[in-house]
Amino acid sequence: MAPVPSGPIPPFVVGFILSLAISVTARALRWLTTDGAAAAVGMGTLVFGFGGWPQAGLLVFFFATSSALTRWQAARKPHPEHAAGRTAAQVLANGAIATVLSVWGALHPSPWVPLAFAGAIAASTADTWATEIGLLAASPPRLLTTGQIVARGQSGAVTWRGTLAGCVGAAGIAELANLWIHTPLLPIWTAGTAAMLLDSLLGASVEGRQIWMTNDAVNLLAAAAGASLAAVLGTV
To answer: How far is Cα 112 from Cα 82, in angstroms, rounded to an integer?
Structure first.
């Protein structure tokens, strides 16, 4: 019998196995719905396969911390994902931009791509941390555009506690991106923080005005803005 060839496991296989293990665990913990877990497997496989450990590590950090915060004191929070987990649409809204950038960067290497990738992750992290911590703030939230006190969970509502948490989340991604993919700190932090504020601005002003302008669409636009701003600030 001929010997079985040995060699390194292809990165896409490693990415699929790790993403499947993480997503199945997240499904069991009700961090994700079934379709959300399937979307996470696809994104994780692509990011690990094209971007390797450094980019996959940023994605895992965002997912793990954001999911833990989502489930933290979930009974006090008003949205369905706090009980059932995040759906495929929510997973893609937060991670699709970064996934596309990871693939693009492998096929068309350019100095701006790692910056944009980190900016997209920083934006999603900042927004999710701000939302989940802000929902538990003692003071009532206010609309970013008018300052009016509104119900907890309303789109566009902000609290000082949530905003500070979002800034910390963006800083965490900026620091890890600096260590793992060698991007500068300030552009990533600035992009993530600005995108978080843009998300709240869009939520307060245009979300729900058109049938397609959903919360997921706003999150996707904010991630794209974070990616774009990081690429610009990091290359000027």
So the answer is: 35
